[in-house]
Design a protein that fits this description.
Layout lengths: L20 H11 L29 E2 L17 H14 L5 H47 L14 H10 L12 H56 L1 H9 L16 H20 L5 H35 L9 H20 L3 H21 L2 H22 L12 E4 L4 E5 L5 E3 L6 H21 L8 E5 L7 H5 L13 H20 L5 E5 L4 H4 L21 H4 L1
Parallel strand pairs: 1-5, 5-6
Antiparallel strand pairs: 2-3, 3-4
Helix pairs in contact: 3-4, 3-5, 3-8, 3-10, 5-7, 5-8, 6-7, 11-12, 12-14
Length: 562
């Protein structure tokens, strides 16, 4: 593509490429001051991508196939891609959603993902906290036996963070700091006995749940096999319905030639069997919800008991390793020093896991920020701003409709932006969509009044990204469709309108003139029309740019072709 900028530019005879179409699109987006943030972050769906300059053209063009279309109000909204994208960016176009709100929405999305990740980490920490706590208890109990800890309370009563802190304090201990007491050794022995007992209890529970899980799994498989068997039988007996329906009429057997030769009794047996099988198949069509809940509960309990068993066995192993030391080395300074080295390694491992208090503080901070952002991005307030904008546009349109050739000029209208159409409310309270209202003149009236209403609204905004122009192509076509279709009379360059049609077309230009006056010439309206100056000549604000009629007066001049 070729692009030139400046107060005054000279178009070269042979333009040379100096940019790309992508760069031109970006430049137009920047000139329109459009946000470069997507309507919804973290989505690959193009329907929610950022608004672009080309999306705004929906408000700037009313070509022949749209200007009086009963089903499509906006340019290019007759395709799913453009229609869905336009609906999604509508709040932004109306000014109800600002670039600042889009930025905050993106921040909310990012923080929400971070919050979910931290909540998963916290839940994971809570899920395995029991296992870690028991393991740390093993180290602390061994330290107590060696006389490295002097506590007057039960270790099990400490929180996970307090246990980690206590374990960390052992790192600074020396073997010479130990003070081995008979009482500590006795308590350690009793603790191992208690742990062995708890291990057996958990093991028995785990075995019981495992058996139950196995039985339930086998039952589910049996139900599936039985259901499949019933389905096969039902399919085989289904033909009995068809045969029974044939036997209900008066037919002659094609083989023996006798009437009523059908084996009705046998068919009735087949039919009864089919009904019974269908009932049984219905009973087994799905596993009861209570059974499924119990099945999942058993699986969860197995996971929980397995974790507890592994943790207790690890604690027993830690304390047993001390007891399994040779009698000569068990309580020697050398063995205690070796134990302290193991404690240092274990302490570093637990500290890398983090603590739930730290995570809770981070989660609280994220929740506070999200609460603040959601208060700023008030979806209810956005909806109110959308409704206020639409009511304003509707008010502009209602003032213009009576000027046009409409059958219901005084009926109020509503703009349904989620369906990109207009709803007309009758005196009887009935709401009619645009496509439910007959007559091309009605469709044209609502197209012109509503699109002008949008531009009057954009004109009043402090800033609007929508370009300040709109093009109407052949709006008068609804008044002479047959003559437009005729191709045999090329001499009649412009169809002649009847008197009442001339009045109707003149109303189009009067409406356009009224809208321009209301906006103080705030936007430009371009009309491509067959109607000549006898229709619009005396109407204010109309300026004829060019008349493409007669010899060599075409949109594309002959010299361009030659």
């Amino acid at each position: 593509m070729y692009i030139a900028e400046g107060t005054s530019v000279t178009i070269p005879e042979v333009p040379i490429k100096n940019t790309t179409s992508s760069n031109v699109k970006k430049q137009l987006d920047e000139l329109s001051a459009l946000s470069f943030l997507d309507m919804e972050s973290d989505t690959s769906n193009n329907y929610y991508s950022r608004p672009s300059f080309r999306d705004l053209m929906a408000f700037c063009f009313q070509p022949q196939n749209i200007v009086a279309n009963a089903n499509t109000l906006f340019f290019k909204a007759d395709t799913t891609e453009h229609r869905t994208k336009l609906i999604n960016i509508f709040p932004y176009i109306l000014g109800a959603v600002t670039p600042d709100i889009l930025a905050k929405r993106q921040e909310i999305n990012n923080l929400s993902k971070e919050l979910k990740r931290k909540e998963r980490d916290l839940q994971k920490l809570k899920d395995v906290a029991e296992k870690w706590k028991i393991e740390i208890n093993g180290w602390l109990a061994a330290a107590q036996e060696f006389g490295l800890l002097t506590v007057t309370y039960k270790l099990d009563e400490l929180s996970f963070e307090e246990q980690i802190e206590l374990l960390s304090s052992l790192v600074n201990k020396k073997a010479s700091d130990s003070n081995i007491l008979n009482k500590n050794i006795e308590e350690s022995s009793q603790e191992i006995v208690a742990l062995r007992k708890e291990e057996n209890e958990i093991s028995l529970k785990l075995s019981s749940f495992k058996n139950r899980y196995t039985e339930m799994t086998q039952l589910m498989e049996s139900i599936d096999d039985y259901r499949e068997s019933l389905t096969i039988q039902v399919e085989r007996l289904n033909v009995s319905k068809w045969l029974k329906s044939l036997a209900e009429g008066e037919y002659i057997c094609p083989i023996c030639g006798k009437p009523d030769a059908h084996p009705k009794e046998q068919l009735e047996k087949f039919y009864i069997s089919l009904n019974r099988l269908e009932e049984e198949a219905g009973y087994t069509s799905r596993i009861p919800a209570a059974f499924e809940r119990e099945y999942e509960s058993v699986k969860t309990e197995i996971e929980k008991l397995t974790e507890q068993l592994v943790a207790i066995q690890k604690r027993i192993k830690i304390q047993s390793n001390i007891r399994n030391s040779s009698e000569e080395e068990k309580y020697t300074l050398e063995n205690i020093a070796r134990f302290l080295g193991q404690v240092q390694y274990a302490s570093e491992t637990f500290e890398t896991l983090g603590t739930d208090s730290q995570l809770l503080a981070e989660i609280d901070k994220l929740n506070e920020r999200l609460k603040d952002l959601r208060a700023q991005v008030d979806e209810h307030a956005i909806r109110q701003r959308i409704n206020t904008a639409l009511r304003t546009i509707e008010a502009y349109a209602i003032k213009l409709i009576p000027v046009l050739d409409s059958e219901r000029p005084n009926d109020p209208i509503k703009i349904d932006y989620e369906n990109l159409t207009v709803i007309v409310s009758g005196e009887d309270g009935r709401d009619d969509y645009l496509w439910e209202i007959g007559s091309g003149s009605n469709w044209l009236a609502y197209h012109i009044s509503v699109t002008l209403g949008f531009h009057l609204f954009f004109n009043k905004q402090a800033h609007s990204s929508v370009p300040s122009f709109i093009v109407y192509d052949q709006p008068s076509q609804v008044y002479f469709p047959q003559k437009l279709a005729a191709k045999d009379d090329e001499k009649d360059l412009d169809p002649k309108l009847e008197d009442e049609d001339q009045i109707a077309v003149k109303k189009i230009f009067k409406t356009i003139s009224k809208a321009l006056k209301s906006s103080n010439n705030g936007f430009q309206i371009i009309v491509l029309e067959h109607a000549d100056s006898s229709i619009w000549g005396e109407i204010d604000k109309v300026h004829e740019v060019c008349e493409w009629r007669g010899e060599n007066k075409k949109l594309i001049p002959i010299e361009w072709i030659e």
